[in-house]
Amino acid sequence: MEDVLPRLKELRGIADRKATENRDVRDGLNGKMREHIGTRNTFNSEVRELISEVQHQKGIRDEANGAVREAKSDRAEKNQAVRTAKDKLRELSPEREQRGGRNDRRGRRDKEDTPASLRRGIETLEREFELSKHTGNNEKKAMLKMKAMKRKLRDLTEKEDSNVELKDAREKLREAVDAQEASHQIVEGSAKTAQDAHDLMLRLSEEVDKLREQADASQAQVRRAKREADRAHQTYIVSLRCLHSIHDIIRARDNRDAGIDTGSRTARVEVQDLMSKLMSGETLSTDELMALQRSGG
């Protein structure tokens, strides 16, 4: 027994160090597991926020698409109103009466001057004069042509101004065109809102997928750290059992040599109770486990 005692004490020291090492490894892994859980929860929180924003953008998109459909229906009505106003104006237009169904020698209908075409022609000639494109006799011809165009424009304008029905038709056409443009702008604006919301939904959905992948990766690290921490904890428990088994052998030998009966047991009974719980598979608190290690050292 004297030969074995030094070896037992050496083994007790080794078991104590192993218990401490395994406890530190376990605690370190548990710390990492808590960090990974925090990271995972952060990613999952961001995912929930983004999903909420995706739903919000979906609502905006659907509402805007509904507005597009309504605006297109309204625009179709405005388009028809413009066509009707143009038809009415053509019926009342003096140029229509002047044409009277005349065709040119090539079988095409004569193209009569209108106030708008006369204004464009006058503006063209004025620009050409500014650029000195007309000189000599050609300049005189161009001047005479421009005077004739201005005279005809004045006559047509006076005639139109005296035609109340024609003026009313032109005003209705202008109003119809303005309403048509306003309706078109609503269609374009609503369509852009819907498209912007849809594009944002796609970008947010891509970000959700990335965050979910990161959350899954963090969860995998949580599981890995937990498995390793559990293994370290089991090794720690085994080290404690070995430590106390060695300690019990040494204590029994010391008590026998000292002629001490094992009657002073208050602290020892507590330790034995803890060891019994441990051996039966019950879970001990960290404080209880550390008390066991101290009592076995």
Low-pLDDT residue spans: 96-109, 263-267
Helix content: over 70%
Query: Which range does the strand content fall in?
Result: under 5%
* Shape, principal axes of CA atoms: rod-shaped
How many helices does DSSP assign?
A: 7
Q: Describe the largest sheet.
A: none
Q: What value does the Rg take, in angstroms?
A: 49 Å
| SSE class | mainly alpha
Give the terminus-to-terminus CA distance: 20 Å
Whole-number average pLDDT?
Answer: 79
What's the SSE pattern? HHHHHHH
Work out the number of β strands. 0
What attributes does this structure have?
7 helices, 297 residues, rod-shaped, mainly alpha
Question: How does this structure look, described?
Answer:
The chain is 87% helix and 0% strand. The protein has 297 residues and is an all-alpha fold. The protein has a domain at 31-226. Helix 1 (4-92) runs antiparallel to helix 5, helix 3 (115-130) packs antiparallel against helix 4 and helix 5 runs parallel beside helix 7 (286-296).
